[in-house]
Amino acid sequence: MHVTVDDSDDYVCHGLKAHDDNELRRPDHPTITYRLIVHAPTNVRLMLAQQVHDKSWQLSCYAHNLWYEIPMVYVNGLALIDAMEEMGVPAQTNFYTNPINVTLKSNHPLSGSVQCISRPAMEEAEIYGPGLERGRSMNLYVDKRLNVRPNLIVQGPANATRSMGTRVQLICIPLGVDDLRIRWLKDGNYLDIAGNRRLRIVGTASLEIVGVAETDAGLYTCEVSDASGAHQSRQSARLSVAAQGTVPKPIPPPASSKEDTTDFISFEVAKPVIFMDADHNARVQWSVKASHEKHAYLREFVVEIRQKDPLIENSSTLWTEADRVPAHVRATTLKKLNATKKFQFRVSAHFTGGFNQISSPPTDWMGFVEPKMVIPLSPRITRVQTVSHESILVSWEHVTGTKYNIPDKFIVNYMDTSSGEVEEARVRNSTNEVLLDELLPGAEYRITIFAENSAGRSLSSRPRIARTY
């Protein structure tokens, strides 16, 4: 026979005479009580990988055999949701999912212990009942070592020959990160671009020379350094100047060729995956090619949404912006959407350098499905106190997993053990105690409590015995 966590309870075997059901109500027959505790073993899977293009970390923490609980992630003993501020990571992640998927792009190198825990224990264990098993965990240790630093220049200048009086552009495209410093050198000396009207920066860092003169010939170097100045990349090219009219004009490429080698023709944003929950939130997740060289130009992603009334034809609205996240983020949560509408989602990638945005294919139309109510969990009696010769005060506590198993009322059953007569008291769900009055003096009562909602009645609480004076 297969058991589940719901089978955890006390089981009583009664020794009764045949065909005498009334004897069950009397306490003088032999009984044997068995306690069954069913453990639900959990397991966790922690995955951690560093991306090559921007050195960010992809983290995934998944827990098996959980119901409504969620796993937890710790970095060096500190909950990740709190550690992100210390690491300099923008707070763009929803930590209330299973699995937890996070892209970490911090200002400080990630180093130390990363831990994925399946479920809490210690003080919180008491509210889960006898089926609790302490959480499983999986640890990975990240060792910060000296890595080969990436080249800060994606595309450097190429050798060129120009006639005097023409113009030339020396291309330099830096890595698409913030706080980079760009400078140009000629023959090892820094150029004063602001003080020379014939020199200017076009695009992000390319150098343009207008009215090329014989003195412009030389070795030009594009220098890109990070904010600290400790990391620097250089690429050089030679400019030759010929007499006017001696350099032939280049043959224009045919119409079918690609003049711009940085075109994003092969860059794609996959159709987003949508998870819609009972609280009318939509979790949007998407992906792009992790190794694509054009990641250097990514600036941000824009999540777009449109809606329609399912009861009215041709009622769909235009695409509108729902959220905007940095380039390293691959998921976001749109909260409190209209439960009566249907929605389509798409994600657009936006780039630096004036390149056109690229949008993912739209999702199918989808809407929220309201879940049904479920039977509430069993209450737990916390106190039984005899107040007088005819009254007993009963207190209890009740834990709800979700808003769909909240009870409407509590039913308190109390039975005089000598007569077997059962009575009940019904109270609202906002109450957690009741005074049972008009009881018999000197009588013993067996008290149990049920929780009830539109889905049905819960299992009984464990019985408690109390006696009036």
TrEMBL record:
Keywords: Repeat. InterPro entries: FN3_dom, FN3_sf, Ig-like_dom, Ig-like_dom_sf, Ig-like_fold, Ig_I-set, Ig_sub, Ig_sub2. It holds the Pfam family I-set. Residues 378-469 form the Fibronectin type-III domain. Residues 150-240 form the Ig-like domain. The keyword Repeat applies. Residues 231-260 are annotated as: Disordered. SUPFAM superfamilies: Fibronectin type III, Immunoglobulin. PROSITE patterns: FN3, IG_LIKE. This is Down syndrome cell adhesion molecule-like protein Dscam2. The lineage of its organism: Eukaryota, Metazoa, Ecdysozoa, Nematoda, Chromadorea.
